[in-house]
Amino acid sequence: MNTRNKGALAEYRFISTAISLDLKVLVPAVEGYAYDCIIDNRKSLHKIQIKYASKDKRYNNYTAMLHRRIKSTNPTYRKYEAHEVDFYGIYIWYIDTFYIIPFEAVTKSSLSLDPKNKNNKYDQYKNNWELLL
């Protein structure tokens, strides 16, 4: 599966899960925004950037890149900024699991997830849809 398809898979899975939780999901009509969707929980709006986490066989965990491409020729990347994204929805397809991580909880442009390790920095965000309700 190519990178674009992995991203689409993660986005559609996130949206379908959010709808099943009775959240309203708003999706931009065109590409190019820093967020992939907006969640409306009837109290507030949350900008969500959805990422597909790839398997990292070297460390037996999953990694996601948290930067955006801003040029198509000679690719240039930059980290997301606080005014652009409220939460990351990181999808691990291999185990059908989302990590709902607040923007401020991430300090680097990539992260590693180890679902088996309860001491993982991000374990508290595993399937934590409550943050969006």
Q: In CATH, what is the class? A: Alpha Beta
Number of domains: 1
Radius of gyration (CA) equals 14 Å
Kindly identify the CATH topology: Trna Endonuclease, Chain: A, domain 1
- Number of helical segments? 1
SSE arrangement, N to C: HEEEEEEEEEE
| Beta-strand residue fraction | 35-45%
Quickly describe the structure.
The chain has one helix and ten strands. It is mostly beta strands and 133 residues long.
Please give a structural write-up:
There is one protein chain. The termini are far apart. This protein has one helix at 3-20, and strands spanning 24-26, 37-40, 45-52, 54-56, 61-65, 67-71, 76-79, 87-92, 97-102, 110-113. It is mainly beta. The chain is globular and about 40 Å long. It has one domain: Trna Endonuclease, Chain: A, domain 1. Helix content is 14%, strand content 36%. The chain has one helix and ten strands, in the order H-E-E-E-E-E-E-E-E-E-E. The strands form three sheets. Strands 1-2-3-8-9 form a five-stranded mixed sheet, with helices on one face. Strands 4-5-10 form a three-stranded antiparallel sheet, with no helix packed on it. The protein has a two-stranded antiparallel ribbon with strand order 6-7.
